[in-house]
Amino acid sequence: MTLFERIIARQIPADILYEDESVVAIRDINPQAPVHLLVVPKRPIPRIGEALPEDQAVLGHLLLKAGEVARSLGLDQTGFRLVINHGRDGGETVPHLHCHLLGGRPLGWPPG
């Protein structure tokens, strides 16, 4: 069971900002920006490179909800970034696909 599955099952506490039947948005415990949330599908998909055609609806929902949460925090006024990591070199630390929502300060480019 991944860390996120344990959070979704309420076995581990988290600061949940949004939840519906498909996704949960939580504050990152090691924030890299003033606003750093993780938007996590409840159904585990190990990583984006392993997503299947049947995951299309949940992936679309994940991105739409990330945008909705960003708007609810006023980040649409100044800008925000969505990041999905894949593999060790991509920065993945939990093998359960999730989207980082970062904002609240200017974000440099290129990242990393």
Can you tell me about this structure?
With 112 residues, the chain is an alpha+beta fold. β1 and β2 form a beta hairpin. A 5-stranded antiparallel β-sheet has the order 1-2-3-5-4, covered by helices on one side. The model has no long low-confidence stretch (mean pLDDT 96). It has a single domain, classed as 2-Layer Sandwich (HIT family, subunit A), CATH 3.30.428.10. The chain contains 2 helices and 5 strands. The protein has helices at 3-8, 56-72, and strands at residues 16-19, 23-27, 35-41, 80-83, 99-103. The radius of gyration is 13 Å and the shape is globular.
Which structural class best describes the helix and strand composition? Answer: alpha+beta
Under CATH, the homologous superfamily reads HIT-like
The CATH class is identified as Alpha Beta
Low-pLDDT residue spans: none
Distance between the termini: 29 Å
Bin the helical content. Answer: 10-25%
Number of helices: 2
The fold-level CATH name is HIT family, subunit A
> In percent, how much strand structure appears in the residues?
15-25%
> Architecture, according to CATH?
2-Layer Sandwich
Order of helices and strands: HEEEHEE
pLDDT averaged residue by residue: 96
What gyration radius follows from the Cα positions, in whole Å? 13 Å
How many structural domains in the coordinates?
Answer: 1
